[in-house]
């Protein structure tokens, strides 16, 4: 069986979301069409942004029932990422805090998708 290598977020405006993720990821998309944008990520994974009104079949519900997580390694790496994204003015949904799994924080993209930063499992 193949390994998953693409996560797709349903977005209102792929162009607006592409601008957000271009800044967030510091990279250009590999695909940029009116209804779909794709950013290749490290490790062979791709982040897709699909215009919600064009998704087939249409989702039965909307809302945020999950997160995209960015694991960053190194001493104080989560805190450094927090400061970088805070200084960029990204909307913070959860301030830098310590949870059971270590330091973490959450920002929101233009559609309210939750983007969590945390440390990798040890």
Keywords:
single chain, 122 residues, Signal recognition particle alu RNA binding heterodimer, srp9/1, 2,3-Dihydroxybiphenyl 1,2-Dioxygenase, domain 1, 2 domains, four-stranded mixed sheet, 2 helices, 8 strands
Structure notes:
The chain is of the alpha/beta class. The chain folds into 2 domains: 59 residues, Signal recognition particle alu RNA binding heterodimer, srp9/1 (2-Layer Sandwich), CATH 3.30.720; 60 residues, 2,3-Dihydroxybiphenyl 1,2-Dioxygenase, domain 1. It has 2 helices and 8 strands; from the N terminus they run βαββββαβββ. It has a 4-stranded mixed beta sheet with strand order 1-4-3-2, covered by helices on one side. It has a 4-stranded mixed beta sheet with strand order 5-8-7-6. Strand 2 and strand 3 form a beta hairpin. The longest helix is centred in the first third of the chain and has 12 residues. The model has no long low-confidence stretch (mean pLDDT 94). InterPro entries: Glyas_Bleomycin-R_OHBP_Dase, Glyas_Fos-R_dOase_dom, Glyoxalase/dOase/EhpR, VOC_core. This is Drug:proton antiporter.
Q: How are the secondary structure elements laid out?
A:
Blueprint: E1 6-11, H1 14-25, E2 31-32, E3 36-40, E4 46-51, E5 67-71, H2 77-87, E6 92-99, E7 102-108, E8 114-118
Parallel strand pairs: 1-4, 5-8
Antiparallel strand pairs: 2-3, 3-4, 6-7, 7-8
